[in-house]
Amino acid sequence: MAEIILRAKEIPSTGLEADCISPDRFAGRSIKEIEDSEVYAGNQVEKLGKYFDVHGEKADKSTEIKIVIEGDCFRVKRIGQAMTGGEILVKGNVGMHLGSGMRGGKITVNGNADSWVGMEMKDGSIEIKGNARNFIGSAYRGNWKGMKFGEIIVHGDVGDNLGTCMLGGKISIHGNAGQFLGFRMQGGEIIVDGNSGSRAGAEMEAGRITIKGRVEEMLPSFKKEGNKYIGDLSENGKGEIYIEEG
After folding, report:
1. Angle at CA 182, nearest 5°, toward 173 and 179?
2. pTM for the full model?
3. Which of 18, 67, 160, 204 is least buried, going by the fewest C-beta atoms within 10 A?
4. What local confidence, expressed as pLDDT, does residue 3 receive?
């Protein structure tokens, strides 16, 4: 597999929109052409090479490309957006919308991630070795179709609204989760090894949530059957929430 290495320089305080950082977008391009890829710094169109040193070798297919990103990229957004194959390894933190609309391939982050990881993800895998913020695997605001297939793993804690409007796939959290876990969930599976905030499964229609720790407060619109809750009955939902610590 051909490696293309991006070493971050100084990232602007306004952040960087860089959906060009993707095996699909790098496929068939020379290093010079990759350096000339367009990014947005605020409302200014700039070249990727202004913010990253680029090294590596050309490959014709996205499935033959591994992008290695070095440095703190917490203000770099949309890395791996809509990618269909190949691999991205981030050796540091990463910004919002990582892997949004992703359709295949693999993303690994050896650090923390901002919000909207795997938004409306259709397939592929994302693994975050640190923490992640809000709306992981969720639908974007105004839409009702979240993650459909694929897998997201977060080794640390996550924020609120994990799996909002989730349709399918699997999300595994090895730490704790915030409020509104699985809000309007319609399918798929969420596993939380730690604790969850309140309102887990609010407006849930289908799918399965397993919480191995405690839940701050369960909604009264769920029917308790042993350590399993069925609901959300206010939506005629048939979702299942399993709480191992009761």
Report:
1. 80
2. 0.96
3. 160
4. 97
